[in-house]
Design brief:
globular
Length: 493
């Protein structure tokens, strides 16, 4: 086996920083959780307006680039062709971006908003409308605009300027060759740490839903004795996937994800209240676009509410802290696409899928609650709401098993794509580093998740990861300016 190919300051620096946070999260989880939670609350309270404004700028910027004169520019040489088929590309975008989250929150979030909406009367028709629109707002075009800024910046400078495929390269028009110095190292370490703990948190969320589903379906007990082997199995599957590479393991798993998700959605659509779901989809799409601009900048300045901190601002901070991983992965699989194709597909297709997905699953749950009097999805914990909804449909056992499989595969694709991203950054942008490095990072991710699960530090590290959204939002604004500056120089280049 070839020796490791690494950028030493970034590789060792990120391992040391991750190790330090890991020790703190395990040794004093309560104090760490309280500290990072207080930091997170302070940032959201004082700079919530900055998050909203930043995300609005990201969305406006990518839309202007999409429809502007740079839309036909290739992400690569002018004669380059896409590395992946269109459907494979879309499947990888979606699987890396929001897979586990949509399984966890598709029923849970809108049902929660229905019971406690930001402004409407709880459990009213207005609450139903508000519940759906705010869920689409949180999982729709704004989140993908954040990812698009990072992905487009890295793809452009990586494939047009032949710069390393690392986060630092997005700052090249401003820093020039200084991206190879301490500032560049710090940016990459920052991205790796955020990615590592973001993935560890997602693994914790995913394993809790798998465990809940197995308990619901087979009576498997809920607890750490079950969850640790689950993480070990998923980590082993992710390791196999990253060893086989992007074109085989990750691509095949992403395509499998998409197929299984579509099958589950079609199943619920057919056996559920079909005509109601089609009606709701049209209405929900209209409501989403009708409230898009207002919600983009609505900080509830004249009627302050803790709801916006707990939901919208938390999501914006989480998506920003998650953006180095998703954006980097999107860039990795998007060589040969045009700027317009990249932005259009990254923004629109996942958003439409999210709207359809949430409509089908949650409108079915709301119909069961309002028209049939079934309160299972309302009363259950977040990880069980989906499974409770499925109990009222035919072939419950098959649908629940399909859901568990889908969570597991989403779980694996998040882990393997995250390992590839971290490996690429620590290898100085080299996309074909030795297999041993990919195995190291895939295994390390699993060990971090296991250690935090045992030590009770997952909550602390999630708060820490969300807190990194504020400084990284500043980095992304600079990267957004750098991208426009680089594109403006394209005709002279």
């Amino acid at each position: 086996m070839k020796s490791f190919v690494i950028n030493p300051p970034v590789f060792y620096g990120s391992v040391i920083v991750i190790g330090l946070f890991l020790v703190v999260g395990i040794a004093i989880p309560g104090q760490a959780g309280a500290f990072f939670g207080a930091v997170q609350a302070s940032i959201l309270g004082a700079f919530g307006w900055f998050y909203l404004l930043s995300v609005g700028i990201f969305l406006a910027s990518v839309l202007l680039l999409c429809f502007g004169r740079f839309g036909q520019l290739k992400l690569g040489p002018d004669d380059s062709v896409p590395d992946f088929r269109f459907l494979s590309w879309i499947a990888m975008l979606f699987a890396a971006g929001m897979g586990i989250g949509l399984m966890f929150y598709a029923v849970g979030e809108p049902m929660t908003h229905f019971m406690a909406p930001p402004t409407a009367e709880p459990r009213s028709v207005a609450a139903m409308r508000e519940a759906m629109t705010v869920t689409f707002f949180h999982w729709g075009i704004h989140a993908w605009a954040i990812y698009a800024v990072v992905g487009l910046s890295l793809a452009y400078f990586g494939y047009r300027y032949n710069l390393p495929l690392t986060i630092r390269s997005g700052l090249y028009p401003i820093l020039k060759n200084r991206i190879d110095g301490p500032i560049g190292h710090a940016v990459d370490i920052f991205a790796i740490v955020g990615t590592m703990f973001g993935i560890a948190t997602s693994l914790g969320v995913g394993v809790s839903q798998i465990n809940a589903g197995l308990n619901h379906l087979l009576g498997v007990p809920i607890g750490i004795a079950v969850q640790l082997p689950l993480i070990a199995v998923v980590t082993a599957m992710a390791t196999v996937s990253v060893v086989t590479g992007l074109d085989k393991g990750v691509r095949i798993l992403s395509e499998t994800n998409l197929i299984v998700a579509i099958l589950l959605m079609i199943f619920v659509l057919v056996v559920g209240p079909t005509s109601l779901l089609f009606r709701d989809f049209v209405q929900n799409l209209g409501l989403y676009f009708d409230t898009l601009v207002l919600r983009t900048f609505n900080i509830y300045a004249y009627e302050p509410t803790p709801w916006v901190d707990a939901w919208t601002l938390f999501y914006w901070a989480w998506w920003i802290s998650w953006s180095p991983f998703v954006g980097m992965f999107i860039a990795r699989v998007s060589r040969g696409r045009t700027v317009r194709e990249f932005i259009t597909c990254v923004l629109i297709i996942p958003t439409l899928v999210s709207v359809v997905w949430v409509t089908v699953l949650n409108s079915t749950a709301l119909d069961q609650l309002i028209n049939q009097g079934f309160t299972g999805a309302q009363d259950a914990s977040l990880e069980l709401k989906l499974f409770e909804m499925l109990t009222q449909l035919p072939w419950t056992w098959i649908a629940s098993l399909l859901s568990i499989i889908l969570v597991i595969v989403f779980f694996v694709t998040s882990s393997d794509s995250g390992s590839l991203v971290i490996d690429t950054i620590t290898a100085g942008g080299k996309v074909n580093a030795p297999v041993g490095q990919r195995v190291f990072w895939a295994t390390f991710e699993g060990l971090v998740a296991i250690a935090l699960l045992i030590g009770g530090g997952l909550g602390a590290l999630q708060a820490m990861a969300v807190s990194t959204g504020f400084p990284f939002a500043i980095v992304l604004l600079i990267a957004c300016y750098a991208l426009i500056k680089g594109l403006m120089s394209e005709p002279r280049k």
